[in-house]
Amino acid sequence: MLTRAAGLVAAFIAGLALVVAAVLVVRHLTAPSKPELPVIPESRRPALEAAARVCAPLSVPLLAAQIDAESGWRPRADSGHAQGISQFAPVTWKEWGQDGDGDGKADVWEPRDAIPSQARYMCHLYDVVKAVPGSETSVGATRLALAAYNAGPNAVLRARGIPEILETEEYVDKIMKDLLPKYRKSEEKYRTSEAKRTGRASASPSVPSSASPSTDPSAPASGDSPAATRQP
């Protein structure tokens, strides 16, 4: 009798273990997955890291987030009025496009030309928005510079801030609130991985050595591609 009772208890425990295991499996399968971080294409990293050193406010995560919002990293992206990985309007490219790959031609479709041109233009826009209220903080200046990249600097100057253009407002928010934090984490993960791979600490080029933490818009503080860079 005791043997039979012991068998029943063992069977009950085994059944209970199976139920618990099944519940755990179901919970695992139905639990929301943790979103993956975006990754900078390795073929674009050299140009991006060099571009981040053009002026102090820039960083690898910021430029990467901007490219992601502009073109989704597609070199042949064409909105109809802006072109390339950094989405330059022809009139803006004519003024700011530069030969970054040394082939003697400034080609808006060539990322090695477009990315450094994007950086130079952003540095210019940071200077332009210095006259606009809200530019006193690094985050405020970055929001204004991004708005100027999307809507044109004259629109930001006229509005004395981010113009009330839905597309521009969504563009700035997508970069600052969504993409930039993700690319910051992605870059930290990349640097940690590189340090382990090489066996030494890796100095990040995400922020120029001359920049202080307060000037890095990637630091914590305080949407497909919106339309392209417009005429200044």
From TrEMBL:
Stretches of Low complexity bias are at 201-232
Q: Which intervals hold domain Transglycosylase SLT?
A: 60-169
Basic and acidic residues composition bias: residue spans:
186-197
Q: Which organism is it from?
A: Streptomyces luomodiensis
Could you identify this protein by its name?
Lytic transglycosylase domain-containing protein
Record's Pfam families?
Answer: SLT
Region feature Disordered, mapped onto this chain: 186-232
Q: Which InterPro entries match?
A: Lysozyme-like_dom_sf, Transglycosylase_SLT_dom_1
